[in-house]
Amino acid sequence: MRRSAAIVELEKQIERIESRPRGPGGSVSTGVPSLDALLPGGGLPRGQVVEWLGPRSSGKTTLLRTAFASLRTTGESIALIDTARSLYAPDWVGLIAGEGRFWVIRPPDPGEAAWCADLILRSGAFGAVALLASTHVVPAEKVDPVLRRSVTIRLQRLAEEANAIFVTVGHVPLAALRLSFRAGRVEFVQEAFGPFLPSIRPIWVRVGKRGAVEVPLLYPVPPSWGLEPARDRKGPAI
Amino acid sequence: MNAAPSRVATVLASEGPASPDVSSGNRLATALLAGSPRVAPLGPAACRVDARGWDRRGGEPVLVRTLREATLSTGFIGAWVGVGDVAVVADAAAVLARHLDGRKSHGGSLPRGVVHDEASIIVPPGAGPAFLSPLPLSLLPIPDELRVTLRTLGFHRIGELAVRDRNELEARFGPDGVQAHRWARAEDDRAFRPLAAQDLPEASLELDGAAVTLEPLLFVLRHLLHRVSEDLLRVGRCASRLSLELHLDGSSTVQRAKVLPARATRREDLLYDLCRAALERAVDAKGRLAAPVREITMRVEETTPPGARQGDLFTGDWRDPMAAAAALSRLRARLGEEAVTWPHPRSTHRPESRNRWRAAASVETPEEEKARSIPSSGAGRFISADGALESTLHLLPEPVEVDVWASHGCPRELRTTTGSRSLIVAEGPERLSGDWWQDPYRREYYRACTEEGELLWLYREWREKGTKERWWLHGFYD
Fold first, then answer.
1. Residue of B263, B270, B394, B405 for testing the chain A interface, max A β-carbons within 10 Å
2. Residue A163: which of B317, B338, B432 has the nearest Cβ?
3. Which of A175, A184, B34, B186 could staple B70 via S-S, CB 3.0–4.6 A?
């Protein structure tokens, strides 16, 4: 008897499911191909704690948003715990539209951040959770851990059970993978009394001992401009 | 099943000086079943009714009379009815009827065919846009902020909005603008969710002795939840809003607490956690209630059909959205409504005003899902054409005053208590000013880079002649 094309297609899909690795594993692209190539597994690993270290302006938050935008296309839910409550809403509105769901948790007390991460990971419903500690002026290695050792182990287990990406922007003990960020050399861009122009400067992201990769960062027009820059009108000059 | 009917009636009722509560809403919904088998409560004293099928029973004037009589016979002292093709027209007609109550006409400005008597307005089929056109914008159920903005821009009548180009409104106001335009043109696809009043379950239990601590209440809470959950299961609904009432011993005082799950649910464990969090707010540090409680009542105030998503066998990492809803509800219960947010920037120049986050009130209603799927300009594009990542800004909660040495107006050195830091590159100024009518500001913004590579966002405040120059640190890039 001749089998229909639909049955053949179903069998192929079942084969694909059966051939997938069982249990936790896999990775998600950071949105930067050169960095993905350097990361073990070709992206941010699921089920592990990944710490991102670096001083202010070294591009940690920028890369986090790019990675989330990449993950969002898979339709998975994402939670970002903004401990310092310093994220600028216009930068993140693009993550709301389209596939996937995205929430920013802004705990009134920074001490609640670990509890938030625990609850979100425990639900098993989120594909990625990031804990954004307050960013520091001094190199992050000199900063106290944002999570205690026992808490990190607990969250590591929960991330593994949920098969979720768990990123801490800040130092945690026992992280499985560390990404170190460093701002590149500052080029002369624009002297004062000139208009703001989009400018680019590099950052370096080092993946453990596997090497570093240069990622260009774009500093766009001022964020104070309206939502529709083309139609915007600036106020009168001082 | 929940598709909007082709004719809708909206009934508004008044109880007089006493403010309406949930029980009056149930009473109204029950009364209106005399006029139609499909009644959708809108609030304590408002309902929508499926108005189809009255052609052979005397027409819509008879329906209006029936609905008014049913409302007034239930103890309400006033009833106003509006009938139209869609909900937005019927709602506006009912509000207008209430506004014109006792007056015979509307200054002759009602379109031809609209039937107006003392307490009702019937808008004939197809006349919705013409009826809405001369009415004030306040009759559209649009967000207050959008309404204020539209008024500022010179929109006062619904018709003035209806004639605008939809794409133009979308570009300026996003999904809210599109929705407002649709309503202004009498297009309304909001679901009609009929609900019989008896579908709202409630359970109550009187304690053997007055409780002074939380434990006895938590013990009976599970029992009440079980009963309510079973009632919800029986009618195939989920609770989207509940209230807990604590009847205090020896007095008629009732303490109320609201419970709002992130997503409509009838899961006992989730509802228990939320109710418990609500009750814990009523006890002091020693776990004692402010006053002894003799009775506890749980009331479901609003229900919706189950909205579970279909799982996908062929998606390896399918995750349960209800579990996400439960986690977010618990976060909200403990940290407050404003802790679980979505970015919702305002279109204004002042940076701290633009930086607005709104409470993510629910996980995903169909309307939100639809609005979210509309790609906004630039949405999701965080990588430029040449592969550079667009940087993000961190805004300090409040601008911090800093000591800056400037040369020819350009910031060159940042002095703090720990020392001074050279600013090796500074871009600017970007001049911003505005809000002269309430809280004026005039600023010159600079993007300045320290020797360590830190990119700061500074501004200088406008100063009067002879006053000291003041600089503020407003944020930094990362």
1. B394
2. B317
3. B34
Helix (H) or strand (E) holding B429: strand B419-434
**Do A86 and B320 make contact, defined as CB atoms within 8 angstroms?**
no
Sorting pLDDT into bands at 50, 70 and 90, what band is A223?
very low
What's the CA gap between B411 and B469, in Å, rounded? 12
DSSP A174: T
Pairing of strands B288-304, B238-248: antiparallel
Check residue A142 and give its pLDDT.
55
Is-contact B329 B369, C-beta < 8 A? no
**Residues of A whose CB is below 8 A from B171:** 228
CA dist B48 and B82 (Å) reads: 9
Q: What b/e sequence results for A49-71 when a residue is b if at least 16 CB atoms lie within 10 Å of its CB, and e otherwise?
A: bbbbbbbbbbbbbbbbbbbbbbb
* Inter-chain residue contact A88 with B336, CB threshold 8 Å: no
Which ipTM did the prediction report? Answer: 0.82
Both tokens assigned to B456: 């700061």
Q: Which CATH architecture has domain A45-220?
A: 3-Layer(aba) Sandwich (3.40)
Query: Which of B382, B386, B461 should we substitute to test contact with A (largest number of A Cβ atoms within 10 Å)?
Result: B382
Ranked by mean pLDDT, the top range of A220-229, B130-139, B310-319, B343-352 is B130-139
pTM over 0.90: no
Q: Nearest by CB to A119, from B322, B331, B409: name it.
A: B331
Per-residue pLDDT tens over the stretch B416-472: 777 788 887 777 778 888 888 888 888 888 888 888 888 888 898 877 777 788 899
> Nearest by CB to B388, which of A190, A218, A224?
A218
CA-closest candidate to residue B256, choices B25, B22, B14, B20: B22
Identify residue A100 by its one-letter amino acid code. Answer: G
Q: Is a pLDDT exceeding 80 seen at residue B375?
A: no
E strand segments, B74-224? 78-84, 115-117, 120-122, 202-213
CATH of B8-184, one of 3.40.50.410, 3.20.20.210, 1.10.150.20, 3.40.718.10: 1.10.150.20
Other Cβ atoms closer than 10 A to B451: 10
Q: Pick from A19, A64, A83, A86 the residue to mutate for testing the B interface (most B CBs within 10 Å).
A: A86
| The amino acid at A105 | I
Which CATH topology does B208-304 take?
Dna Ligase; domain 1 (3.30.1490)
What residue spans define the domains of chain B? 8-184, 208-304, 381-477
